[in-house]
């Protein structure tokens, strides 16, 4: 449940954003002509990109360039709300911020990075920057266009001077060139994650109906049947080659409910997971 959502805009686009919410929560979106810096003020999440995932915890941040993402926020141990801030970068906004004189480090050509997400080394300067944003979100009457421009410039300078500045610079130079991923690669990368068909459609930047049609074309099967079959096959394999508990295997194979997993496994193999392991190993 969203408890608080605030944003400050430039050129009718959200540039500075804050969200406070009660997890668990899944947030998804496609950044077709933007990139952003995401900072976790409080909480923990798994950020899924087209071909990789990253874990984020309190006081951690990432730079994300164009692409489709799904951010799955987990419940906090102390049941506290989660909180995150995001600073969005758009080509037209940056041109406005720099008065059409974009700094060289944003436009110089370098070999394209293969990463669409880069973890940022958070230092005290960035923490202080985030604290200053939170102050303005608590006192929104103080914010104006000049301050928004200053905060954008300040963040960019901080990002290109972090310990992993080379990789950050490389991503900044390529922020507005979305990477093309093969449909099949996205599915295979995320096959055993706890993601629904709707979630996978988001990562492929498709509507659910278009996703299902494309899936049938590529795999000659429906998404639901193919994904469940592959997950059950992996579970059967893990039951024989690992000592992991059935519950752990259930979650490792992308199932979120042990009861549903056991029922599906028995329907396919004629035995419960425990009985299957015992029978095969006896």
From TrEMBL:
SUPFAM superfamilies: Homeodomain-like
Superkingdom field: Bacteria
Pfam families xrefs: ExsA_N, HTH_18
Keywords of the record: DNA-binding, Transcription, Transcription regulation
Domain HTH araC/xylS-type, chain residue ranges per copy: 181-279
Molecular-function annotations in GO: DNA-binding transcription factor activity; sequence-specific DNA binding
Name used for this protein in its record: AraC family transcriptional regulator
Species this chain originates from: Sediminitomix flava
């Amino acid at each position: 449940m969203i408890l608080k959502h605030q944003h400050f805009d430039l050129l009718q686009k959200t540039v500075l954003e804050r969200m406070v919410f009660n997890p668990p929560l899944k947030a998804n979106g496609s950044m077709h002509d933007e990139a952003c810096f995401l900072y976790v003020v409080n909480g923990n999440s798994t950020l899924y990109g087209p071909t990789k995932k990253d874990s984020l915890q309190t006081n951690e941040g990432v730079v994300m360039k164009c692409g489709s993402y799904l951010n799955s926020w987990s419940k906090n141990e102390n049941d506290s709300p989660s909180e995150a801030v995001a600073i969005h970068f758009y080509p037209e906004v940056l041109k406005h911020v720099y008065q059409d004189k974009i700094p060289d480090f944003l436009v110089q050509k370098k070999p394209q990075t293969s990463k669409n997400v880069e973890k940022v080394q958070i230092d005290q300067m960035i923490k202080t920057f985030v604290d200053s944003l939170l102050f303005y979100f608590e006192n929104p009457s103080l914010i104006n266009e000049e301050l928004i421009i200053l905060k954008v410039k300040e963040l960019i300078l901080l990002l290109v001077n972090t310990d992993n500045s080379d990789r950050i610079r490389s991503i900044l130079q390529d922020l507005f060139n979305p990477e093309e991923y093969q449909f099949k690669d996205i599915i295979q990368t995320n096959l055993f994650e706890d993601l629904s068909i709707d979630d996978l459609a988001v990562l492929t930047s498709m509507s659910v109906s278009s996703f299902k049609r494309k899936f049938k074309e590529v795999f000659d099967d429906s998404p639901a049947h193919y994904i469940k079959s592959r997950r059950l096959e992996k579970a059967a394999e893990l039951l024989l080659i690992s000592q992991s508990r059935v519950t752990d295997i259930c979650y490792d194979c992308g199932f979120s409910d042990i009861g549903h997993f056991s029922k599906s496994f028995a329907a396919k193999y004629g035995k419960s997971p425990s009985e299957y392991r015992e029978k095969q190993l006896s």
